Amino acid sequence: MRRREFITLLGAATAWPLTARAQQPAMPVVGFLDSPSSIPNTDYVVAFRQGLAEAGYVEGQNVAIEYRRANTQIAQRTALAELVSRPVAVIVVGGRGVLGAVLAAKAATSTIPIVFGSALDPVKYGLVASLNRPGGNVTGVTFMQGELLGKRLDLLHQLVPEARTVAFLSSDSTSLSYEEQSSEILAAAQALRLQVIILEIPRVGEPSSDRDYEAAFTTLVQRGATALIVGSFPSILINANRILALAAHHKIPTIYPARGFVTVGGLMSYGADTLHPYRQLAIDYVKRILDGAKPADLPVERSTRFQLAINLKTAKALGLDVPPTLLAIADEVID
């Protein structure tokens, strides 16, 4: 082989890997908009990462994730504008305040797929056309919390049957789900022949001040309520520590919407397993969208995983004996 031919061949061999690398497809980018929650032991991002890895997409290896955290509507719109301009292959909306964030995402883009985990009815609020046929660019998992309030009241009644007046800690009427949740709890109370006092916490200046919560618990005591249900409102759940402290101080038996409350001293909780849907979002939605599926063709799934958690130490401190029937159906009992 002549020297010139050898050099030409060597140059081609050296250039080939560079050309091959240049032809490799770009790593897909997933946008994750998270609204931080103060509910203890809740990390939606970790659950989502785990599901994505199970689906074969490992962050930093064959997928990139752009994280944004936003507590207010203005911050959400700014974060979504950044993700849309990136542009990302799909936007996942998680954490508290999901409904407002998904509505903002839908307004920001009609082409980038949007995947949500929402505690509200996505059809009622116009996120999708129907559960089976979402249409458009939005789909995801729903774990409708409003339908669980009747079950929470029933469980609390079993634990504290002598409580004839029960308080319901609620956001004010400006909340998107106020009417839904208040109607649900009033209907459930009527069926059990109980009286319900709705304690509204103003959303103005969210998060609300300590005085708002202290006033609500003062009203609870003055009006003779001897048990409490905490509503599933983002503006309420962000104040988890305040609620736990006041319930303990006033010795009010309380049922919460998430097990994270019980792991740090709350009495009892019943609600959807909110971490599992975020693994599900990664496996059943994001992976399929990255592989070419369209969100309009992916039906909205309803989460059917619910958890009852009871803290026996807290029950003892309140002088309560937990009925064996409740212990038998509890998913988690903390001694």
> How large is the radius of gyration?
24 Å
Total domain units: 2
Detail the poorly predicted runs. Answer: 5-16, 18-23
Distance between the termini: 82 Å
Large-scale geometry = elongated
DSSP strand count: 13
What is the CATH T-level topology of the largest domain? Rossmann fold
Q: Strand fraction band?
A: 15-25%
Please name the CATH architecture of the largest domain.
3-Layer(aba) Sandwich
Assign the CATH superfamily of the largest domain: Response regulator
Strand order of the largest sheet: 7-6-8-9-10-12-13
Largest beta-sheet details: 7 strands, mixed
Quickly give the structural class.
Answer: alpha/beta
* Secondary structure: helix percent: 40-55%
So what's the CATH class of the largest domain? Alpha Beta
| SS element count, helices | 13
How would you describe the oligomerization state of the chains in this entry? Answer: single chain
The helix/strand order is HEHEHEHEEHEHEHEHHEHEHEEHHE
Query: Mean of the pLDDT scores?
Result: 86
Describe this structure in words.
By secondary structure, the protein is α/β, with parallel strands linked by helices. 42% of the residues lie in helices and 20% in strands. The chain has helices at 3-23, 44-54, 73-85, 98-108, 149-159, 178-191, 210-222, 234-237, 240-250, 259-263, 276-290, 312-317, 324-329; strands at 29-35, 64-69, 90-95, 114-118, 138-142, 165-171, 195-201, 227-230, 254-256, 268-272, 301-302, 306-311, 332-334. The strands form two sheets. Strands 7-6-8-9-10-12-13 form a seven-stranded mixed sheet, sandwiched between helices. The chain starts with a helix and ends with a strand.
